[in-house]
Specification:
The protein is mainly alpha-helical. It has helices at 2-21, 24-208. The radius of gyration is 73 Å and the shape is elongated. Keywords: Coiled coil, Membrane, Transmembrane, Transmembrane helix.
């Protein structure tokens, strides 16, 4: 609007001046006015170019701003969805909290019962400790008895070793006797074989005799 106003004012001034100076000065004045108009026109073109540049920058900024607005709108929608999700999670958490409180009450009841059970078990532990002490005394007595028995066992071991030596000696005697018996049995078998052969010879002789000898009656 300021550039258009300057153009109108400048034309009006030129018209008034031309009317005042006449034809002679019109040419000079026209040349000056044309030069000034060209200068102003150049300035206006430059200003217009600057305004167009500013307009382009403004449009770019507007587009960037619109893009940012769209992004913010999407983020707002996302935040709204997040808020809804948080509200849902909060409701679930409240339900879980109620369930947890119920479980806590049950746990406290169980704890009281467990404490009563602990008291009973502690009494049982005391009884078992007394029984353990009694058993330890019995173990001590048994260990003493075992010590005595081990001493007796050592004496019996010595006696057993002596008896084993005697048994070994007797076994040697038995082995010698068995060897002697084997020898005698061999001799007896040989003598029996010889006697059997002699009986056969006597029987043969008796059978050959016309008048048997009285000795042959036994064969």
């Amino acid at each position: 609007m300021s550039a258009i106003g300057r153009r109108i004012n400048l034309g009006l001034v030129v018209f008034v001046v031309l009317s005042m100076v006449g034809t002679g000065g019109t040419t000079v004045l026209y040349q000056d006015s044309a030069s000034e108009l060209r200068s102003q026109n150049q300035e206006l073109r430059q200003e217009n170019a600057e305004l167009r540049g500013n307009l382009d920058d403004t449009r770019s900024e507007l587009e960037s701003t619109q893009t940012r607005v769209d992004e913010l709108q999407e983020q707002l929608e996302t935040r709204s969805e997040d808020v809804d999700q948080v509200a849902t999670n909060l409701n679930q958490t409240e339900s879980q909290l109620n369930a947890t409180e119920s479980q806590l009450a049950e746990t406290r009841q169980s704890l009281r019962q467990s404490e009563g059970r602990v008291d009973e078990l502690e009494g049982t532990v005391d009884d078992l400790r007394d029984e353990r002490d009694t058993l330890e005394d019995e173990v001590d007595d048994l260990e003493t008895t075992i010590g005595d028995l081990e001493a007796d066992n050592e004496e019996l071991e010595d006696e057993r070793n002596e008896l084993e030596e005697q048994v070994s000696d007797l076994q040697d005697d038995i082995d010698s006797l068995e060897s002697r018996i084997d020898t005698l049995e061999s001799e007896i078998n040989e003598l029996e074989n010889q006697n059997e052969a002699l009986r056969d010879d006597i029987e043969t002789i008796c059978n050959r005799m016309e008048t048997p000898d009285p000795t042959c009656e036994d064969y």
